[in-house]
Every structure is written in structure tokens, then in C-alpha cells.
Amino acid sequence: MAPEPRKCVRVLIVGGGYVGLYTALRLQRKLKAELRKGEAEIVVVSPDPYMTYQPFLPEAAAGAISPRHVIVPLRRVLEGCQVLVGEVASIDHAKRTATVSTLATEETGSRERLSYDELVLAPGSISRTLPIPGLAEHGIGFKTVEEAIGLRNHVIEQMDIASSTRDPAIREAALTFVFVGGGFAGVEALGELEDMARYAARYYHNVTPEDMKWILVEASDRILPEVGEEMGRYTVTELRRRNIDVRLHTRLESCADRIAVLSDGARFRTRTVVWTAGVKPHPVLAATDLPLNGRGRLRCTPQLSVDGVTHAWAAGDAAAVPDVTAEESGKETAPNAQHAVRQARVLGDNIVHALRDEPLETYAHKYVGSVASLGLHKGVAHVYGRKVKGYPAWFMHRVYHLSRVPTFNRKARVLAEWTLAGLFKREVVSLGSLEHPRAEFELAAGGKPSGDPKGSS
């Protein structure tokens, strides 16, 4: 009697970020034989066909790295996986099914239902916004490569506006840049863009660095808490030395009518409000039957399985993972890239262990510190208890993130761009029309352009 064929095990990975990509890469390698025999299948559902290496977004915004080189094409690196571009709308883990909206959903009017055997939830996070008047209309986020490109174009366009008018009110609004949030994203984006704009000013006959006003708004008493209190104070001093207005214990109360109103009573005319004030769990987590903690993240075990549930796993921003290296009980690992990449490896290995009825591994990694760039040749770092600032910290930032960006292809391209950037001048041109590529043709064809061809906001 012929043996009964083995069932194909489907692993569904929700999200194509750090955890999604690295988990899929791990499974692709560990289950190579099973994938070849058709005994296993890995499906990655991601809203974008690429993974964004977010620590490089500030440099992409400043033009130090090409935007295409801060993303990793999922289909190219996940050759053994099925990549589905779409978003998971809901998950019924009791029935092992997920409802997925794809790019074809608008055409067909119906969503797909995917069944699975093992679930990996790694949808990441989204920007945490507040009901501030004018924020939805005028605010600019900084979580995606598209936002980084748009912000770079926008900053240069504001300099073009200021250069082409004598109206003091218009010039003031165009040359005032408000960043809300003193974490990595806000400080690094501000530092890199101020550096770029300062350089670009040499090509404008009537705009100087002194004409520009850069403001960092932070609600707490310090910025960059990850690098420690001393390095945080140094960062404030360094930014203020560059005439950047750092306002601690301050909140944005309104940006309606292009006027930024702060809680300390200050008011600024501005056409640029960049919102980087934190993130919150992805909404798909609330559309599952899996256990969440009080902050909306999945309750997980140190083995990265969802607590109290079988065949469900999570890591990264979506997961509340106990920190077994912490001295105090109840502490969780920080939702950052350093943990996400390492958790993904353990998560991938544990899924393989579970499929083969082997003991699971415990995720244990003591946080080694943080590095941050404050612009070209400027940075701060707090690594293994050592405090570093200036050029050495900036160099450490580049070396560390170059070692962490996925694939040799991307490492080589980023290194080549840095090398060329050291030999030639910066590119300081805006390509804002990319955001509305059909506007010029629509106008030529006698129609009404669907958007502002310059993409200003």
C-alpha cells in the first residue's frame, strides 16, 4: 500500500518589514527541502512589494542615498516564497483564515480568504497622531520612503518659493520648518534636512542659512532618550549651536491656517509641519481573535509564540515580548530594529522546531545601545556603556547600519553612493512633479490637473 502524501504546511507571514522579511528568509533557508518537495509553503502578505530600511530614511531625504537603495525588493530576495501585495483586513485564528485586500480588490469587489497552518503577525506600526486642528490637512509623516522623498522635494520647493517672492509673510512661512517629536525619526530627519538646506542655500542669491528657522518640538524633558541623558543633553546643545530652536516640555496645539501654535504660547507661520511623535500598533491586531495587552500589542512568550495560543507567532512592533535579560520582572523588549532583526531569526527557527516537534528557543538579547546621526559628520552614540559624539559617532552610525541593511546588493550600492558623495557635490534639485506625473499631460489635453504639479503642501 502506497504511503499517504504528506500535507503541505502553509506559513502565513503578515507584513514585509524587518520581522516579515527576516523570518521569511530564515524559513526559506531552513525549510529548503520541504519547499522543494511541496511539503511547505511560505506566503508573505505586504502592502508594499519591498521592505524599507527605515534608519536610512533621513539620509534618503537629504539626498545622501538614492531612495531605491533603502528598500529591498521582496520578490527578488524571497524566491522560495509567494509574495502577495495587499493588506490583511482581519484574522480568524480559530478557523486559521485571514481576509486579504489586494490591488485587484477594487476591480473585483471581493476580498480573498487565505487559510494557513502557522501564522506570523508582523504588520509593524503606524504613526500615532492626535486630534490637533490642521494636522491631517498640513502634517507630513516620516515612516515611508515615499514620505522621505516628498519631504526632500517639499523643503527645496519652500526655498524656491522664498527665493521668488519679496512678500515677508510668504518668505517666513516657506522658510520655517517645524518638527514634532524628539525621537530618532524626528531628530535625525531634522538634522539631515537642515544640513542639506544649509548646503543648498549657497545656490540661492537671496536665501541664506540664517533666513531659515528650524524648530524641534518635544513634549517631554529630553530628546533621544535611547542614547542616554548625557548624550541627549549634548544633542540639544549641538542642535542649538546650529541655530535650531529646540523646545522641550512643549506640545503642538494647532497648525490650522498654516500657523503652528505651541503650548508655550509661541506662534509660527509655516508651510512645513513634520509629525514624528511616536507610533501605535497596526489596526489589524484589533481585527483578530488573539490576546492583546493594554497598549494594543500581542501578548507573547519569550519563545515568540502568542501567549495561550498555538500556531501563532509575533515579533517586532506588534509584539509585547518579555525581556528575559532585564533585572526587573515584567519588562518588555523595546520595539526597535535591533530587537526585531534578532527576534526574526529566533522566530523562524522556532517555527521550524515546532513543525519538527523539537524544543523551542528562548529569545534573549541584552540591548547594546543606540547610534544617531545629526547630519553629515555629526552624531551621538551610547554603545556598551560608552558615550561617543561628533564624527566618531556618525561613523559608527554608518558602519552599524551598513552591516544591518539586508542583502549584499544593497550594502554595495549604499557604500558606493557614500563613496561618490564624498567625491562630488550634493544634488539639491527638487523632483516634486513626480508626485503628480500626469498633471502636465492632463493640462495639455484640456483637462483639469488632478493635483498640484509641484506637490507642495
Automatic annotation (TrEMBL):
Pfam family, one: Pyr_redox_2
Gene3D superfamilies reported in the protein's UniProt record: 3.50.50.100
Keywords: FAD, Flavoprotein, NAD, Oxidoreductase
Keyword Flavoprotein belongs to the record: yes
GO molecular function terms noted in the UniProt entry: NADH dehydrogenase activity
InterPro entries: FAD/NAD-bd_sf (IPR036188), FAD/NAD-binding_dom (IPR023753), NDH-2 (IPR045024)
Superkingdom as given in the UniProt entry: Bacteria
FAD/NAD(P)-binding domain location: 10-344
Sequence similarity: Belongs to the NADH dehydrogenase family.
Protein name per the record: FAD-dependent oxidoreductase
Source organism of this protein record: Streptomyces colonosanans
